[in-house]
Amino acid sequence: MQPSSCDTFVALPASTEGHCIIFGKNTDRPCDEVQEVVYFPAQDYGAEEKVECTYIEIDQVAHTYAVVLSKPAWLWGAEMGANEHQVCIGNEAIWGRETSDGDEALLGMDLVRLGLERADTAERAVDVITKLLEKYGQGGPCMEDEGSFTYHNSFLISDRKEAWLLETSGTYWAAERVEGGHRNISNEYAITTKIDKEHPEMREYARSKGWWDGKSQFNFAAVYSFMNTARIEASGSRRSEGKKLLEKNNGHITAETMMDILRDKDSGINMEGMFMTTGSMVSVIPTNPHLPGVHYFTATPDPQRSVFKPFIFVKYAHQLKQTTSPSYGLNDPVKKKPRFQSKPDRKHELFIKHELVADIIDTNKDRGKKITDRMRQLEKETMTKMEEILSRGIVQPDFLVNLFPNSVQDEMAVYSKS
């Protein structure tokens, strides 16, 4: 199995409609991996408390923000998500000159969750992630059964006014502010000469390794990339195709546009095979701070045969039980050393029902089309309701505490009729 990975997108005004920022991401992971969508409320902690991430324990902060996450069910961190301040983060696997093989540390997915829990703006998320990176490092297996699959990480981070691209190599990093237009990233370094923040020793380290002469204009991607690795062969074409799809809709990008891009199979963005799109996310963030953001998640593989379901941050939002996988606690094979000696069943309720319907879609063309049409109709009806909230604000917050779970129930009702 040749590892591949993901694509992340952001569109800022004036490339979008309705004075909003549109964020989107496909998480491309092993085809048998379960992606869960979970919600954690804001929480306060006492001094000296710790937080157990996927592999290591780190210092906890006094307060964490409420987050909604789409994550591989076996680990602590997340591939993508948002917080109550409408910060959105997605990460990408990248490989460069610096080896990614090393001791267990923070996974890039841990850094996604930590950035969302601890930062109320995109720029602060950059600061949170880079400080944690410098203190704890990044490393460890990134697949539940593949100890050799390791990588560095890049992150696309957005809030109500801007976006940031953060790219790493070991503990070194560079960041670029994205202030307008649109941007998409795949599995290759993309920051060139526009660097708005950086590790203070990043350039000197590159010079000491002989990657940069110390005199020519510094280009982060050119200096830190190792372009001959087979793992990123397809990333350039996917990034190029993604950029074309954004440009095709420039000035008119909507949530529906972003969903269509994530569903696109011809470009490779909607991935199939041993590595496939196991979960998708689209967020609509109004620039008006008085309006809520709407965060859509599939919680199921292949967005083309999935339903994007909305989540809105409101007080007393309920747990997302039907998209939460079984928990094995300290008995989880991930927590025991040596790790990954067995692989428990992590399928959540929606995943199980979706798996059955996906098989029908694949094997019965006529019946499959009827199911898919019903799914799209449900999604369209839900998005119409969300458009009203995006334009007018929240009138009945109590109605929204079960917004995502109710949408899951509606989706499963479509399956039952099928």
TrEMBL record:
<dbReference type="GO" id="GO:0016805">
    <property type="term" value="F:dipeptidase activity"/>
</dbReference>
<dbReference type="InterPro" id="IPR005322">
    <property type="entry name" value="Peptidase_C69"/>
</dbReference>
<feature type="region of interest" description="Disordered">
    <location>
        <begin position="325"/>
        <end position="345"/>
    </location>
</feature>
<dbReference type="GO" id="GO:0006508">
    <property type="term" value="P:proteolysis"/>
</dbReference>
<dbReference type="Pfam" id="PF03577">
    <property type="entry name" value="Peptidase_C69"/>
</dbReference>
<comment type="similarity">
    <text>Belongs to the peptidase C69 family. Secernin subfamily.</text>
</comment>
<protein>
    <submittedName>
        <fullName>Secernin-3</fullName>
    </submittedName>
</protein>
<dbReference type="GO" id="GO:0070004">
    <property type="term" value="F:cysteine-type exopeptidase activity"/>
</dbReference>
